[in-house]
């Protein structure tokens, strides 16, 4: 695009009056390029145009067309004096418009900022409410979990009291001294019996199993396999106390090592049941040291550990070395 051609003489006269080149060119172009008076009238009519000081563009190749005026146009002194006033007025009007536009933009920014602040406060409040609700749900879930554990422990105690021949209701003594008697050598682990066992030993058995479970936390299959294997050893001895093969375990047996032997707590549990390490090669339970009360308590502890999913999660440690 090219700048349209205008009469150079008229353009110079307008510039001498104080009008910028772009405004004078634009005025001449749009007023017909006929006279200074027509150009000044156009400027007065369009002084508030945003593009009044922009150079007009034309697709035509600029051509300087001389205008022959029959009567020369003379710029009066009044017009010369008025031209700066008009230019100054145009400038002031533009400044006023720019200030109005800037105030409008500032108001819009303020409104947008307030809207963002309100949205942010609402989002923060909603997040706070969600956090409060989540904390309440977590507390309630923990309470329900503790209640389930408490009920499970009460159920286990009731079952053990049944095994020990105690009434199901009523508080358990701290260190019960219950006489042990059985006419046969077999202990049928599905029926109640009158047994005697130290509550301290029961705690040590439980702590062995808890410690074993904590070692492999997250691998429930390995824990369950160890507990079930110990249960089989205890049950076999209880049901067959006269059979030596059930009272003798080779420490180097691969099956024993993979399931129980690799855990020192597993070996310690069997020692609490009466087994002794012989020559570093065997775990052996002498026939005269078979204690049905101890075996029954070991069976009850193992059964609780296997069936109670919360076993060992809400308990304190017991020093197994006492």
From TrEMBL:
<protein>
    <submittedName>
        <fullName>Uncharacterized protein isoform X3</fullName>
    </submittedName>
</protein>
<feature type="compositionally biased region" description="Basic and acidic residues">
    <location>
        <begin position="121"/>
        <end position="154"/>
    </location>
</feature>
<dbReference type="Pfam" id="PF22562">
    <property type="entry name" value="UBA_7"/>
</dbReference>
<dbReference type="InterPro" id="IPR009060">
    <property type="entry name" value="UBA-like_sf"/>
</dbReference>
<feature type="domain" description="UBA">
    <location>
        <begin position="5"/>
        <end position="46"/>
    </location>
</feature>
<dbReference type="InterPro" id="IPR018997">
    <property type="entry name" value="PUB_domain"/>
</dbReference>
<dbReference type="Pfam" id="PF09409">
    <property type="entry name" value="PUB"/>
</dbReference>
<feature type="region of interest" description="Disordered">
    <location>
        <begin position="119"/>
        <end position="154"/>
    </location>
</feature>
<dbReference type="InterPro" id="IPR015940">
    <property type="entry name" value="UBA"/>
</dbReference>
<dbReference type="InterPro" id="IPR036339">
    <property type="entry name" value="PUB-like_dom_sf"/>
</dbReference>
């Amino acid at each position: 695009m090219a700048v349209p051609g205008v009469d150079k003489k008229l353009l110079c006269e307008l510039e001498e009056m104080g009008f910028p080149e772009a405004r004078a060119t634009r005025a001449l172009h749009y007023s017909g390029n006929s006279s200074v008076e027509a150009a000044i009238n156009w400027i007065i009519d369009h002084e508030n145009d945003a593009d009044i000081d922009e150079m007009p563009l034309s697709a035509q190749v600029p051509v300087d067309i001389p205008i022959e005026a029959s009567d020369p146009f003379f710029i009066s002194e009044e017009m010369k004096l008025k031209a700066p006033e008009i230019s100054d007025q145009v400038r002031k009007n533009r400044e006023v418009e720019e200030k109005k536009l800037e105030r409008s933009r500032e108001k819009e920014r303020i409104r947008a900022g307030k809207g963002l602040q309100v949205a942010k406060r609402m989002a923060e409040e909603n997040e706070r409410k969600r956090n409060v609700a989540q904390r309440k749900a977590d507390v309630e879930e923990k309470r329900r979990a503790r209640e389930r554990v408490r009920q499970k422990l009460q159920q286990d105690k009731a079952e053990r009291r049944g095994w020990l021949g105690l009434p199901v209701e009523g508080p358990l003594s701290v260190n019960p001294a219950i006489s042990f008697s059985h006419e046969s050598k077999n202990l049928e682990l599905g029926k109640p019996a009158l047994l005697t066992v130290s509550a301290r030993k029961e705690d040590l058995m439980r702590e062995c199993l808890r410690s074993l479970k904590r070692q492999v936390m997250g691998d429930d299959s390995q824990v369950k396999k160890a507990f079930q294997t110990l249960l089989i050893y205890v049950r076999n001895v209880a049901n067959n106390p006269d059979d030596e093969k059930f009272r003798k375990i080779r420490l180097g047996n691969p099956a024993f090592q993979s399931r129980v032997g690799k855990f020192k707590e597993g070996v310690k549990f069997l020692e609490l049941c009466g087994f002794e390490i012989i020559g570093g090669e065997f775990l052996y339970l002498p026939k005269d040291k078979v204690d049905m009360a101890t075996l029954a308590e070991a069976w009850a502890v193992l059964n609780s550990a296997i069936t109670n999913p919360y076993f060992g999660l809400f308990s304190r440690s017991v020093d197994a070395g006492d």
